[in-house]
């Protein structure tokens, strides 16, 4: 159980590193041979396709560049959100717009060991929040 969560957290961490312009193809080849590879590959493929955004200024206010995935001012600039579920307790929601990306993770916390691993993973993300350019740190209702 804990090794599965560790593998899942490693997948998400590696995927976020892939979002920071590391080699996605090496990660795909690595996770292709892991168990439950369809979940990992679908997360990685969604990330790689979602990272095709560009600089797009606001249509309402001149010289403003705000993330459309947060504001949702123009529905034509939003792509369909992708929800990848491993089970009810483990989900990954990927919301993409023309100029931004929002990733929401739900991690299973069934016992004390998984709680510790989740806290370590959150600490890993919070220490690197500036590198990931995290704009919102509140949970999204899925």
Automatic annotation (TrEMBL):
Residue ranges the record marks as coiled coil: none
Principal cellular location given in the protein's record: cytoplasm
Entry-linked SUPFAM superfamilies: Arp2/3 complex subunits
UniProt KW keywords: Actin-binding, Cytoplasm, Cytoskeleton
CC annotations in GO: Arp2/3 protein complex
GO BP field: actin filament polymerization; Arp2/3 complex-mediated actin nucleation
Subcellular location: Cytoplasm, Cytoskeleton
InterPro entries according to UniProt: ARPC2/4, ARPC4
GO molecular function term, any single one: actin filament binding
Origin superkingdom: Eukaryota
Family statement drawn from the similarity comment of this UniProt entry: Belongs to the ARPC4 family.
Name this protein carries in UniProt: Actin-related protein 2/3 complex subunit 4 isoform B
């Amino acid at each position: 159980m804990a090794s599965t969560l560790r593998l899942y957290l490693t997948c998400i961490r590696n995927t976020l590193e892939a979002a920071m312009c590391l080699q996605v193809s090496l990660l795909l080849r690595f996770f292709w041979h892991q168990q439950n590879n369809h979940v990992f590959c679908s997360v990685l493929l969604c990330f790689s396709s979602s990272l095709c955004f560009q600089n797009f200024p606001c249509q309402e206010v001149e010289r403003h560049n705000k993330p459309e995935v947060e504001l949702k001012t123009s529905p034509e600039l939003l792509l369909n959100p992708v929800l990848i579920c491993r089970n009810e307790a483990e989900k990954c929601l990927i919301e993409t717009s023309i100029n931004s990306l929002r990733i929401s993770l739900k991690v299973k916390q069934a016992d004390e060991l998984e709680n510790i691993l989740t806290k370590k993973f959150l600490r890993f993300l919070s220490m690197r929040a500036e590198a990931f350019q995290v704009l919102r740190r509140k949970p999204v209702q899925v």
